[in-house]
Amino acid sequence: MGIEATGSMQWFVNLMEELEIECLVGHPAQIRAAEPRKQQHHRRDVDAILELLVQDRFPAIWLPNDDIVSGWTVGALYAFCWQQADGYHRKHAIADTWIALRSGI
Prior knowledge:
Strand 1, helix 1 (10-18) and strand 2 form a beta-alpha-beta unit. By secondary structure, this protein is mainly alpha-helical. The chain has a two-stranded parallel sheet with strand order 1-2. The chain folds into two domains: 1-63, no CATH class; 64-105, no CATH class. The chain is built from six helices and two strands; from the N terminus they run βαβααααα. It is globular, with a radius of gyration of 15 Å.
């Protein structure tokens, strides 16, 4: 299964892990680049993701697993997000989600 990276995706990724379903998270800009039409349409997005998965061209991004993140402090998690080159706001939202999940908020 492939999904586009968003700030609120972590709950879904965790659910897929619990159900033992492989879930790849893709880079949104690269997924958009694969679709020649500029108008966004959810059905077209799904078709583009499916095509990328079938052709083994899905632009998966690396996400830390729980074993890695469990050893991080809040400051280290934010530092990790700052070190990434693009999409500060998206990564900031992902970091907030991880922190909220770890603290039980």
